[in-house]
Amino acid sequence: MNKSASLICALITTFIWGTAFIAQDTGMDNIGPLTFNSARFFVGFIFMLPVALIIERKKIIPEINSNKKLFFKYYMFMGVSLFLGTSLQQAALQYTNIANAAFFTIFYVPIVPILLFFFYKIKVHWSIWPSIAMCIIGVYLLSNFSDSQIMLGDALVILCSLFWALHIIFAGKFMKKFDLPIFYASLQSIFVFSLSIIAAYVFEEIDIQKILLEYSSILYAGILSGGVAFTLQMYAQKNIDEAPAAIIYSLEGVFAALAGWIILNQILNLDNIIGCFLILFAVILSQIAPSAVKKV
Known about the structure:
- The chain has helices spanning 3-26, 33-66, 68-92, 98-105, 108-120, 128-142, 148-177, 181-203, 208-213, 215-236, 242-249, 252-263, 270-295.
- By secondary structure, the protein is mainly α.
- The protein has one domain.
């Protein structure tokens, strides 16, 4: 797969993730966030595994055996970070609106280069610091600090962005070593399902009838977001570095806000819109400025 095809995969991934916020929000009318995540990732696994076995069956064993220790190391790291990221994001949607959840999630963009510095000693560009400052101002304009529930939801999403950043980094490193995007996406799904269902049994009441009431949201989030999008993400990051990939994924905030506005009538006021643009501009600056310096 060439870089152009990878870019298309990244854009499709971003669109699916952005519009999936609608399914994630409406899918909790009758069930809790952990139960919803359990169902969506189980559906993602059931959908992706047969596809992986058809397309990648001949190279699954050789790829894993090429470095079994590293394979399972990334499997654990990516699985845990994806579980924590999706769980926090899903829980946050109970308290805040889709635009807030989407735009605060894309805080992972300036976080990615900072984590790359701490983990891999990759230098942090100066543009990260004004980007973070703009993100903070954007938070002030987008969030409603007079509403404690909204503040809680926004705080959960900001925390979840840390785990999304880790997942993007690990995905990039994994795809540099192993060529199993579909099989790996299915493995991720069953891993997150397992952790989610255990947590759901502890903290929530699992009712099959209520789960079935949310079938359309679960199918969209499970097949498209949890299955297709995560597979396309792996394909995309085969030829795109972690930082450029992050800026493309940040557009999910735009798609989510538009979808929430059009479908759920979650209207933003002027301050909210300015906050959205500040955050979006900040994440773009954090990626374009370092690239521009390299070209010069």
